[in-house]
Automatic annotation (TrEMBL):
The chain crosses the membrane at residues 6-23, 32-51. It comes from Mariniblastus fucicola. Keywords: Membrane, Transmembrane, Transmembrane helix. Residues 392-585 form the Putative glutamine amidotransferase domain. It holds the Pfam family GATase1_like. The keyword Transmembrane applies. InterPro entries: Class_I_gatase-like, GATase1-like. This is Putative glutamine amidotransferase domain-containing protein.
Length: 769
């Protein structure tokens, strides 16, 4: 039945009557128009319903689209917001209850697929067993995995309930957003600062300063600890506190640092723990903090590269070697081998020898005159000291790379260049540039320019020019001082403070032997200078990088005076030699180098790289490598490795750290013939809680970017029910058109009745009813 004509006639008759009746009663033009308008609009709405107007809109077709609900199950939700009695995890658990209104609203029109995620995503039937106990959260990786599972299927979107804190730094620039449907992050947690003391970063640095070769820097930040005092402890693997420091009068939100300096007693991999807590409490006392997980950190200190072998070769026995040998006698990191010349080459004359004697008379009476190890007349007489066995250096200074490259550093003292053959000179240069060893030359009458090292491969590797031809003046005393660059090098200093070091320099005896140099080479650095009694200043200690290694020139030739002219108990010279030689070998590579680095894209994956070299420090081909990982629970796991196609002599492996704690990896490398090359060890710490609790505030910026990139929107928990009730009206893959008559809308009738009541109320108020 078509109602439009009767409805139009009724409206045309009723509305004029309404206006006429109000104006005819002398109630005033303004009031009459107002009352007439209210009644006329109400009549118009009722007449409009008789015309049966229809509303059309797009709506998700019930059951045709899937909707994914992903809940964060990582430990970062185990935090209580300010003023809350329950943790974020418990509040999220209530949101995920099967009777939750918002879930029921969504389930009417969508096929809900439920997932929990931490390091990986897991499909669940419901959220009844939800628990936030995952070690780490991988938001992007988890969404990618789910996105691939539903690829090609009509998916309305992903509702992501999380605090937005990822275990790894998300690489948003390279992430493929097209693989995801619209994502609607629901922010779990408040953004208000929480009471918390957090260790944000721990770094280690190793120096050659003898008293404290390792520095552990602990960076912390506190919230709602203003004016409090915090205790920071360093403990060993046996949980015994090594050192404790206090930081007073904290400022909220302002980071501060504590440094521990120590000398690990054990070689190899050492594991330490740093922990922080408010003074007067303990490391296990919550004390109102949001979490205690970020109050502790494990740190690895690898002291496993030694012992380093140092070859000292000199043209004569001297005091320098004596004191150097004494200084290193009890040093487990340095192994000093001496090769000293006690007599120069000597021509063979018949009248000087006995009948049938072919060896140098200096060996007469030692019972080895006919031995192959006794020097002949035309050879210098050398003495070997502290060699590894009878074979080492039996033929004198090494003549090939295999023999020379087994040392980590070489020191030349008071020995002229002509002592070495041309091949040995070239090998010494390659020892530094290719092998990466350390070379130091000490000042003396037969070294540097006076030793004829100018225009030799050895001289080219040194950090000073050797073309000084002017005679060195005699009877001049030299005072040693540090340069600006020297002051910043810990291994140069003996005392811990600048004041004490200045006093030490003032009390040092003067030196009388100095090999003067015209200038230093580009890239070299003067760390110490010598000022003579003639007021001229000359370089005393110069260092530089040379290829893969480093070289040093100690131009003072009588450092032994430092010891002889000091008090007997003074150990400054011994300490100086230990620190200097540690610096010389600190970056020297070994034949087997093992490195363990975390994979930044996957929080628990560690990449292990092993570089293997042969005796000449060239990449070792076809080596046999055995890798063994020792887990925090002391379980040994053998892992396989493969050659790196991009680098010869390099082998790579991967290991997934399934439990938190300190890991060790032992690499055993063998030559193709099965001979053991070396065993090396390193370690790493798996601590996913570090990233999880790096920030306790929800990462809204990260979640908002996810929403913007995928076409979704950020949702607050308070708006979740209204969001769910209107979700079926959003653009979805499968939808249908619906038509609804206006007269089915209760709001139309409510508006009409409301207008009539308003008109009646106005009449009563004005006394017209």
């Amino acid at each position: 039945m078509h109602w439009w004509l009767p409805a139009l006639i009724a409206a045309m008759l009723a509305i004029p009557v309404v206006f006429w009746s109000n104006f005819s009663k002398q109630i005033g033009t303004g009031r009459g128009f107002f009352l007439s308008s209210l009644k006329a609009i109400a009549i118009g709405l009722l007449v409009l319903c008789l015309l049966e107007p229809m509303s059309q809109f797009e709506q998700a077709k019930p059951g045709a689209n899937s909707l994914i609900v992903m809940a964060d199950a990582s430990q970062s939700l185990d935090v209580k917001d300010s003023g809350r009695s329950d943790s974020r995890a418990k509040e999220l658990s209530r949101l995920l209850d099967q009777d939750a209104t918002w879930l029921n609203q969504l389930e009417r029109n969508f096929e809900l697929r439920r997932y929990t995620f931490d390091e990986r995503s897991t499909n669940v039937v419901d959220f009844q067993d939800y628990a936030a106990n995952g070690r780490a959260s991988e938001i992007l990786n988890s969404m990618s995995t789910v996105g691939r599972r539903v690829a090609g299927k009509p998916t309305a979107g992903i509702i992501l309930l999380t605090d937005g804190n990822e275990s790894t730094d998300p690489d948003l620039a390279d992430f493929d957003w097209s693989q995801l449907p619209p994502v609607y992050p629901v922010v779990i947690g408040d953004s208000q600062p929480l009471r918390d003391l957090s260790i944000t970063n721990v770094t280690t640095s190793q120096t050659n300063f003898e008293s404290a070769p390792v520095t552990i820097k602990v960076e912390l930040v506190a919230q709602k600890f203003s004016g409090k005092t915090v205790t920071v402890q360093l403990a060993g693997e046996d949980d015994i506190v090594i050192e404790s420091q206090e930081v007073r009068r904290l400022e909220d939100g302002k980071s501060f640092a504590v440094r521990f300096k120590l000398k690990p007693e054990n070689r190899g991999v050492n594991v330490f723990e740093v922990r922080a807590f408010e003074k007067g409490t303990s490391a296990d006392d919550e004390n109102g903090e949001a979490t205690l997980v970020n109050n502790r950190r494990l740190v690895i200190v690898d002291r496993g590269k030694g012992p380093f072998r140092v070859l000292y070769i000199a043209g004569r026995p001297n005091w320098e070697y004596k004191f150097m040998r004494r200084a290193l006698a009890d040093d487990s990191e340095l192994d000093l081998v001496g090769l000293l010349r006690v007599a120069n080459k000597e021509p063979k004359f018949t009248f000087r020898s006995r009948d049938g004697e072919t060896t140098n008379p200096l060996f007469r009476g030692f019972g080895n005159q006919e031995d192959d190890t006794a020097e002949q007349y035309d050879e210098a007489v050398m003495i070997r000291l502290d060699t590894r066995d009878e074979v080492e250096l039996r033929d004198g200074f090494p003549k090939d790379a295999a023999g020379m490259f087994e040392y980590d550093a070489i020191i030349i003292d008071d020995l002229e260049a002509s002592f070495f053959t041309q091949d040995q000179k070239t090998l010494l240069s390659q020892f530094v540039s290719l092998r990466g060893g350390g070379l130091m030359m000490l000042g003396g009458v037969a070294t540097f320019a006076r030793g004829g090292y100018d225009r030799t491969p050895i001289g080219e590797s040194l950090p000073v020019y050797l073309d000084q031809r002017s005679p060195t003046p005699e009877n001049i005393d030299y005072r040693l001082d540090l340069t600006r660059e020297g002051w910043v090098q810990p291994w140069i200093r003996i005392e811990p403070t600048r004041e004490d070091e200045l006093k030490r320099l003032e009390t040092m005896p003067p030196f009388q032997t100095l090999s003067r140099s015209r200038s230093i080479k580009p890239g070299a650095t003067i760390l110490a200078s010598a000022t003579g009694s003639d007021d001229e200043t000359h370089p005393a200690l110069v260092v530089q990088r040379f290829g893969n290694g480093r070289t040093a020139a100690m131009l003072i030739g009588d450092l032994w005076r430092w010891k002889l002219q000091s008090e007997n108990e003074n150990e400054d010279l011994n300490k100086a030699w230990r620190q200097t030689l540690r610096w010389l070998v600190s970056e020297t590579p070994r034949r087997v180098e093992v490195l363990a680095e975390p994979d930044l894209s996957q929080s628990q994956l560690t990449r292990i790289r092993v570089d293997i070299r042969d005796e000449e420090f060239k990449p070792q081909l076809n080596a046999e490598l055995e890798l063994k990982v020792i887990t925090p629970s002391q379980k040994e796991i053998a892992i396989a490795s493969q050659q790196d196609s991009r680098k010869v002599g390099s082998y790579v492996a991967e290991f997934s750290s399934r439990e938190p704690g300190a890991y060790r990896v032992v690499a055993s490398a063998k030559s193709p013939e099965g001979e053991l090359i070396e065993m090396r060890e390193t370690g790493w710490v798996s601590d996913p809680a570090v990233a999880e609790f790096e920030s306790l505030q929800p990462n809204r910026d990260f979640l908002r970017q996810i929403a913007n990139e995928t076409g979704g929107e950020l949702v607050e928990v308070a708006d979740l029910e209204s969001f769910a009730s209107d979700f079926d009206a959003r653009k979805v893959p499968v939808s249908e058109t619906k038509s609804v008559p206006w007269w089915h809308r209760w709001s139309i009738f409510a508006a009409a009745i409301g207008l009539l009541l308003a008109e009646w109320g106005a009449r009563r108020m004005w006394g017209l009813a």
